[in-house]
Structure formats: C-alpha cells, structure tokens
Amino acid sequence: MNRENFDEYQMNEISAGRKSHVDVSLYADPKYNNDQMRQIRRGLEEGLDVSAYADPKFDLYQMREIRWGLENSLDISIYADPEYDYAQMHMIRKGLEKGLDVSLYADPQFDFVQMDEICLGLEKGLDVSIYADPKYNHLKMHEIRCDMEKILSFFQGGLSC
Fold first, then answer.
1. What is the pLDDT confidence band of residue 160, given thresholds at 50, 70 and 90?
2. Neighbours of 30 (CB within 10 A)
3. What is the pLDDT of residues 84-132, one digit of tens each?
4. pTM, whole model, 2 decimals?
5. Could you give the dihedral angle defined by the CA atoms of residues 14, 31, 70 and 87, in that order, rounded to the nearest 10 degrees?
6. Among positive and negative, which fits the CA dihedral 34, 37, 41, 42?
C-alpha cells in the first residue's frame, strides 16, 4: 500500500480498521473516498458480508442503506443496485422492515416520493395496483390514495386524509 495514493482522511479510515482488526485490504483502495471506506469498515466491524456494497459505484449513502439492511437481516438483493438512489433504497428498506410487499414499488422508475405513497397505501391495506404506476406523479398518487382511504373509511365508519 502506497501512502501517497491516499489522503489524510482515507489514511485515518485505514488506521481505524487496523485498530479494530478488520481486513483493511477490502477497502484500502484509492477508488474509495474516506466516507465509503468508513461504511465498509463499519460493516466489517459488525461482521457483515460487505461484498454487496464494497463497490465504488455506490456512494456513501447507498452503502449505508445496504449496510443497515444487512444489520437487520433483510434481503438487500432487492435494492442493492446503483440504479436506485439512496432515498429509493431507504424506502425499499423501510418497506422490508415493515413486512410490506416491496415488489409493488421496487422499481427505479418510481422516485422515493412515489414509493412513499405506495408504502402508505400498503400500510393501509389498499389495492395499490390502482395507482402504482410510474406515469402518476406523487401528487396524483396521493390524490388517488386519499380517495381510496376516504371510501374505505366511509364503509368502516371513520375518516382519513
């Protein structure tokens, strides 16, 4: 390892990994910035299989979402894809944590706000297939979801949205 290839912050992450006795060779590479190195080091310190995200194509926020999924024993293969930005990954991870059928919105064509509208519908037990379509922006999805909730609420004796 040639120290000249790393900046001070990257060297700090390599040193931190050595102190915690992890295999720094998995991230001691100038292709990773210090924040990416930190995410890989933290995963190694927790005994996680970091191979799913130890790739410079993921930014630090994407790496963190994948690491958090691994920490919670989630099937990260559903969202460990650089086509998703970190906010989309977050919505998919949260859906998995809640036991939702994320296949209904785990699609890079949906932005994270659209994903949130679909999640909210799933949490309410709605048939989200009615509005889970990338052609609807999040505002239209919200409108459809609220209308569905009002109809459901009417028949159940309450109001929502």
1. low
2. 13
3. 999 999 999 999 999 999 999 999 999 999 999 999 999 999 999 999 9
4. 0.90
5. 120
6. positive
Distance in angstroms (rounded) separating the CA atoms of residues 67 and 47: 11
Q: What are 55-77's pLDDT values in tens digits?
A: 999 999 999 999 999 999 999 99
Q: Which of 40, 99, 98, 100 has its CA nearest to residue 70?
A: 40
Look-up: residue for tokens 């991870």?
A: 93
CA distance 5 to 27: 13
Longest dimension (CA), the chain: 70
Q: CA 133, 95, 72: angle at the middle one, nearest 5?
A: 150
Q: Which residue has the tokens 């926020």?
A: 61
Q: What is the number of other CB atoms lying within 10 angstroms of the CB of residue 44? A: 20
Query: Can you tell me the distance from the alpha carbon of 47 to that of 68, in angstroms, rounded to the nearest whole number?
Result: 13
Q: How many CB atoms lie within 10 A of CB 8?
A: 7
CA distances from 123 to 3, 86, 99, 120, 126 (A): 51, 22, 10, 5, 8
pLDDT for residue 153 = 80
pLDDT, position 107:
97
